Each structure stands twice: as C-alpha cells, then as structure tokens.
Amino acid sequence: MSSEVETIVHTNKTDEVDSLRFTTRAGGAYIPPHRMRQMQQSIKDTSSEAYQRITWEALKKSINGLINKVNTSNIKMIIPELFAENLVRGRGLYCRSIMKAQTASLPFTPVYAAVTAVVNTKLPAVGALLLSRLVVQFRRAFRRNDKTSCLATTTFIAHLTNQLVAHEILALQILALLLERPTDDSVEIAVGFMREVGAHLANVSPKANNAIYERFRAVLHEGEIDKRIQYMIEVLFQVRKDKYKDNPPIIKELDLVEEEDQITHNISLDDEDLDPEDMLNIFKFDPDYTENEEKYSAIKAEILGDDESEDESGTSGSDESEEESEEDEEAMEIVDKTNADLIELRRKIYLTVMSSVNFEEACHKLMKLHVPEGHEIELCNMIIECCSQERTYLKYYGLMAERFCKLNRIWVDNFVQCFEEVYNTIHRYETNRLRNIAKLFAHLFNTDALPWTAFQIIKLNEEDTTSASRIFVKILFQEINEFIGLKVLKERMLDPFMQEPFSGMFPKDNPKNTRFAINYWTSIGLGALTEDLREWLRNAPKQIMKRRDSSDSSSGSDSSDSSDSSSSGSDSDDSGSSSDSSSDSESDSDSYSSSHSRSRSRTPPRTRYRFRSRTPSRSRTPSRSRTPRSAYRSRSRTPPRQRYRSHSPPSRSRYRSRSSTPSRSRSSSRRPSKRSRR
Questions:
Q1: Where is the MI domain (predicted)?
Q2: Which among 486, 487, 501, 396 is positioned nearest to 443, based on CA atoms?
C-alpha cells in the first residue's frame, strides 16, 4: 500500500514539473525553494528527466545569483563558487546571465570581463560562446540602429579585448565600421568604445591606433556632425594626450590572469559561421547526465584543487578566528583626526560643482553624494567658496544654493550660519570675492530662500563696522533693491514684525548711531529707508528731556526727605566756609605757581617783561581784561584765573594794583624811566 502511495506522489510531482515545461521561453518557471527541496527529495532516479529539470533550474538560479552578486571586492570569492557549478552544461545560462547583467549595469562591465577572463583560462568554450553572442548581438543592433544595445555590446567587447579574451582585430573592425559612414550615433559609440580600448590598442597596435585617430580628426574637420559629438571627439583627443589616465585597460583589483595564461579568440566581425547556440539557454534532456556530471567533477577538482576539503575542514576554526577578530575590531576603535574624509568630501563637491553643465545637474549629482549627517555645512561653504573664486558673479551658484534651501530646512539653517560666519570674517576677503558673495546672498534673500531675520547680525554704527563690512552691506542691499524695487524693500523694512531683526541696521538707541546709519543709507542711495530714523532723531531731544525731567522729579522727592537734616547742619556749613576760603587762597597760590611754571616753559620770562615795560600803560588797563575777546580767549585756552595770573606779577602786588587805579600804578612805575632818559 505504501509503495503505491509513493508511486502516485512521484507521478504527480513528475506531471507537475512537466506542466511547467512550456510556461516560459527558457523552458521552466519559478519554483520556490521549499518546493524545489521537496521535489528533489521525492525524486530518487538521478537520471530521470524530472531530476535533470530540477537541477537545471537550480543551476540557472545559482549562476544568475552569483553573477548579480559579484563586484570588485568579492570577485576572488565568487569565481570559485562559479567553478563549483557545472559551467560546461550551463555555459548558455552563464552567457545569458552575464550579458543581461552587463546591459543593466554598464559601470560593472570591467568586473564581468574579469570574471569571464578567469573562466576563459579554464573553460575556453565559455569565452568563445560569449564573444560569439556579443558579435552577433552587435551586428543585429547596428542593423536596427539600436544605440543602447550597441553601446552595451561595444563596451563589453572593449573590456574583453583589454583582458585578451578577444583579439584587437575585432576592435579595429568595429571602429572602422562605425566611422565608415559617420552619423551622430555611430561617432558617439565609436568615441565611447575608443575611450575604453584606446590604451590597449596604443600598446599592441600603434599604427592602427593612429589611423583611427586620423579618421576621427577627418570627421571633426568635415563638421557634418552635431556640436555635441564634435566636443566629444575633442575630449577624446585630450584623453589620448593625457595617456588615458582615467581609463586604464585593467585596474589593479581586476588584473587576475597572467598574460601568458590567457586564451585569445580570433573571432572576426565578418565571420558568417558564428553560432550563438541559443538552444543552450533551454533545458534539454541528457541521456549521459551521470557521466557528464562525473567528468565535470573531475574538471572542478583539477581547477579548484583541494580548496573545498580544506575549506570544509577549517570552517569551525575559521568561525572562531572570525569571532575573535570581530571582538578585536570592536575593542579597538580607530579615530581619524587627519580629516581625510572631510577633505575628500570637499574635493568631490568641488569637482561636481565645477564639472556640471547647469545648476539642476549639479544639485542632482550633489544629492547623490550622500553628504554625511552633520557635514551639510561643508557643501554650503564649498558653494560660497566656488562662487567667490569666479571673476564675476554667476547666477549658476545662486540658483544652486536656492534649490538646496528650498529642498530641506536643514540647508536653510546652514546657509544662515554661513551668512553669519562670512559677515564676521568679511575683512579677510578681497573686494572681488566680497562682491560675488554679497550678490550670492542677495539672490537668496530676493527669492526668500533665506529668512530676513538673518539681518539681525548687522549692526550699523561706527564701532561695529569696518570698511569691508560696509561695502558688503552696500552691495547686498543694492542688489536686493535692484531686484525687488525700493517700494517693496521699504515695506519690508517697515514691517512691524521685523523691527527687532532690523534694529541693528536702523539703530534708535543713541543719536550718534542714528546719524551714522542715516548718513550710510543716504550715501549708498537708499535714503528713503531712513524716514523713520529721521523722525525719531527730530524727536530725540524732547524724549531725552522728558526722561531727565522724570528722573529729576523722582530725585526731588528723595531730596525733600533730607531737607531737615540739611537745615540742622547749616551752622556747621557756615563755620566751614572760612576754612573753604582759606583753602581757596591756598589753591590760588598753588595755581599761580603752576601757571607761572607753564608760562616760563613757553617763552623766556626776561623778554616777556621787557615787552611789557615797553608797551604803553594803556595796554595794561583793566578794560582790556574785561573785553569779550580776551575773555573768550581765556575761556578757550585755560581757566581765566590761571591765565590772568600768568600775565601778572605775584599775587600780592596784583591785589594792590586792583585796590588803586591802574593808571597811577603804571605811571608811577614809568616815571623813573622817563627821568633817566632825560
């Protein structure tokens, strides 16, 4: 009974597999892994068609997964896994999977070519089949004018030529065909192909390489192609001049095969007997399946050697060592203080900004850089720095900064921070760089990409500004005025909700600062913005007097409380007045001595007294000292008491002359001189 059940189950599974045979073009359908395992366990006969079909599906899935997983870092681990699969039976699957993956991701073409180069050294039939299919596909795409397929195919052939899987004659034939009747598409494909394979052709066939470049030069001089294609040819000549430094034939990580070990296939573009063997993509029953599997097992053992057994025996030890190494890595954290990552980020940003055609392309590329969190300000600084280094301001940078500000609030905050840093260090910039930066921020404020509250950092007064900052503010607001107009600018400046951020630019704390701001705005042609300031300045003295009156009234109430104490001490004040007068007289004598010493330092005293003795007595009358002019002079230079004493004899004779009439004292002093003259 149990044997009958097993027979029924086996029959059902076989019918189920057969029913999936024609569901797809490749002869099978997707089978979930758990069902695949159940079907393999249920089938005992390994030579049956059902078992072969299941293993075929598993082989296809395994090859496809390994090819999709391969990259530069893991290629040395993927290749042994590929050889572990039956690539002789699945060579059609391998070629189809790798061509499909290469078409979908062209940047990985060097990796796929390196994998094929390694496989070709051990299984040349696989390399020959892949190259035949690529040539057939290129012919078909060229006849159909399928540019996308031609680009993918020629790129793959170029890298297979670099890896010596294909002969250089095939590459030269493709270039000759593309440039025989040049069109925009054919020349573009030829330029791309030449950039990939040009370094290899220059080494192995320099004469043919020169002939190809002469043909490119002729096409360029004919001028029948588009300007864009002409520019591509010029760039190609520059790449050749630089010796293909950005397009090496084989990078170091993918140079896995020795040149003498490689097998080169002499397949020509004109070969008519090329067979792509498309039937290898579809399952076909193999009556000698077991024998063929044993043969490939021997080939696999020869290729891989004893690596598998060593790997199996050392799995436990390797697991332990990996765990220990992971623990060591977790224990030791390396901190990079050289800022190498930051420098590399700035370099990438700079190259992206300078190489983009327009601001949209630049923003798209910069967003793909995935700037690390916390380093967003580096992008803002690099945009400002690139803008400042231009000879004149380019709107390209303003549009780029505007796009970032409108993408996310993070960029707004970072650009505001950059504005504050630039304003605080504006004295370090040259005038041309300063002008470009001011116009960049003016664009951001014009388009409302940045909030106008950022102006709160600007303080227009004599102490907080420099010549550079005044020039920066001048250019900034002149650009804003030119864009939005004086009327709109004035409305924004008078917005009651924005008075606090603008208080530094329109100060009302001190009449001196107010006058400075009024003069500044008027000098740069924006005097209309200062009407409110002028009104405040006219009313400022009245407001100051009101404040003083209020302070005096408050102080008067305090003094009335202390009037009683002051009246009780009036006697002491009177008694102290005599002492004050005596002290005044002493101070007078001291002041005389000091003033006398100063007068001696200016002119010799002897000549001065001679001059006085010769002058008439009328010049020394008290009326002269009472004239407004002499009083003004005495006030303007020194206190009048000291000046008067400096021009007079000592205090005792001075007070005597005042008590008597001045004319008598002068006449009595001059009489002896007249007698002596007689």
A1: 344-460
A2: 396
Give the separation between CA 261 and CA 258, rounded to whole angstroms: 5
- Rounded CA gap, 654 and 650, in Å? 6
Token readout for 597 is 């010493």
Residues 165, 122: Cα–Cα separation, whole Å: 12
Sort 149 into a burial class: Cβ within 10 Å, 0-12 / 13-18 / 19+.
Answer: middle
pLDDT one-digit tens code per residue, 87-107: 999 999 999 999 999 999 999
Structure tokens at 338: 């050289």
- Residue 258 structure tokens: 């020795």
| Integer-rounded Cα radius of gyration of the chain | 50
CA dihedral of 385, 388, 390, 391, whole degrees rounded to 10: -160
CB 49 within 8 A of CB 285: yes
Residue 296 CB partners (closer than 8 Å, separation 6+): 86, 88, 89
Residue type, 474: K
Would you state the CATH architecture of domain 16-281?
Alpha Horseshoe (1.25)
pLDDT value of position 646:
39
Partners of 166 in the β-ladder = 265
Task: Please name every residue paired with 265 in a beta bridge, in sequence order, or none if there are none.
Answer: 166
Contact 475, 434 (CB under 8 A): yes
Q: Which of the residues in the chain have pLDDT under 70? A: 1-31, 33-34, 36-37, 39-42, 44-45, 306-338, 541-678
The domain 340-537 is classified under which CATH number: 1.25.40.180, 3.40.190.10, 1.10.510.10, 3.40.50.300? 1.25.40.180
The 10 Å Cβ neighbour count of residue 468 is 17
Give the helix/strand (H/E) hosting 176. Answer: helix 168-180
Please give the Cα distance from 286 to 278 (Å, whole number).
17
CA distance 542 to 490: 27
Q: Is 265 helix (H, G, I), strand (E, B) or coil?
A: strand
CB within 8 A of 196, min separation 6: which ones? 155, 158, 159, 162, 247
Helix (H, G, I), strand (E, B) or coil at 651: helix
Q: How would you classify residue 243: left for phi > 0, otherwise alpha for psi between -120 and 50, otherwise beta?
A: left
Q: How many CB atoms lie within 10 A of CB 590?
A: 10
How far apart are the C-alpha atoms of 266 and 264, rounded to whole Å?
6
Cα torsion 144, 146, 147, 151 to 10°: value is: -100
Pull the structure tokens for residue 388. Answer: 């400042």
Please tell me the number of Cα atoms within 13 Å of 174 on its side-chain side. 34
* Whole-angstrom distance, CA of residue 643 vs CA of residue 627: 15
Residue carrying the six token digits 């069109």: 183
Task: Report whether 125 contacts 88 (CB < 8 A).
Answer: yes
Q: Which residue has the tokens 């940078």?
A: 397
Count Cβ atoms below 10 Å from residue 8 Cβ, excluding itself: 10
In tens, the pLDDT along 339-386 reads 788 888 889 999 999 988 899 999 999 988 888 888 889 999 999 999
What's the one-letter identity of residue 422? V
Alpha helices in 562-661 (DSSP H): 563-568, 570-602, 605-614, 622-625, 628-637, 640-646, 651-659
Report if pTM > 0.70.
Answer: no
Q: Provide the total of helices (H) and of strands (E) in the chain, helices listed first.
A: 34, 0
Nearest-angstrom CA–CA distance, 340 and 343: 5
CB 191 within 8 A of CB 233: yes
Number of Cβ within 10 Å of residue 554's Cβ equals 9
User: Of 157, 222, 155, nearest to 184 (Cα)?
Assistant: 222
**Non-local CB neighbours of 246 within 8 Å, separated by 6+ positions:** 239
Q: Tell me how far apart the alpha carbons of residues 440 and 434 are, in angstroms, rounded to a whole number.
A: 10
Question: For the chain, what are the domain ranges?
Answer: 16-281, 340-537
Distance CA 511, CA 508 (A): 7
